[in-house]
Amino acid sequence: MSDEIADAKRALRAELRERRQQLSERARDAAAAGVRAQLDALVAQFGARSVSCFLSTPTEPGTHEFVEAAVERGIRVLLPITRTDGLLDWAVATGGADIAEGLFGIPEPTGDVLGPIALDDVDLLIIPAAAVARDGMRLGWGRGYFDKTLGSMEHCPPVYAVVFDSEILDDVPRDLHDQPVTGVVTPTQTRTFAPAAR
């Protein structure tokens, strides 16, 4: 990655992180409710019986309500567990499961650990992002876990990134290893990009 691209990514992430930290609790609660409604509709649209999702941090658009409701409806939800080698393990979400702080302070499940290939059986991937460009390019938080995961999948199902409405941007800095997404989910909308995006 060139220094110029790395610097541009770093600056944009810092700006987005600061904006997220300034949101009120009321705005966060409203965003979580909106994200849940959008994700519920997306799961129904795809007829998904197995999905991957992530447990949001306090500054991310909330996903905990969606995960709990999906598990109650009998949908198999895989949650990521970070590894020191840059790959992701997975655990099946269960109602009322214990949550621990994983690497980088990210909430992670404490259940039975499944390896990276567990993801091969899901119908839909729901992933975090710092921002998404209007052409489907995703800007992550810089650790490369999801770019590596998506880039290694032989048969990748639809991938939707979850961001706030203001984080759909005209463009984001990108490098060769960065992976596009099928669509984006915000508290107020779900947008699917042209098939060429993925």
From TrEMBL:
GO terms for biological process: folic acid-containing compound biosynthetic process; tetrahydrofolate interconversion. It is an enzyme of class 6 (ligase). InterPro entries: FTHF_cligase, FTHF_cligase-like_sf, NagB/RpiA_transferase-like. It catalyses: (6S)-5-formyl-5,6,7,8-tetrahydrofolate + ATP = (6R)-5,10-methenyltetrahydrofolate + ADP + phosphate. Pfam families: 5-FTHF_cyc-lig. Its EC number is 6.3.3.2. GO terms for molecular function: 5-formyltetrahydrofolate cyclo-ligase activity; ATP binding; metal ion binding. Residues 5-33 form a coiled coil. Keywords: ATP-binding, Coiled coil, Ligase, Magnesium, Metal-binding, Nucleotide-binding. Substrate binds at residues 55, 60. Belongs to the 5-formyltetrahydrofolate cyclo-ligase family. NCBIfam families: MTHFS_bact. This is 5-formyltetrahydrofolate cyclo-ligase.
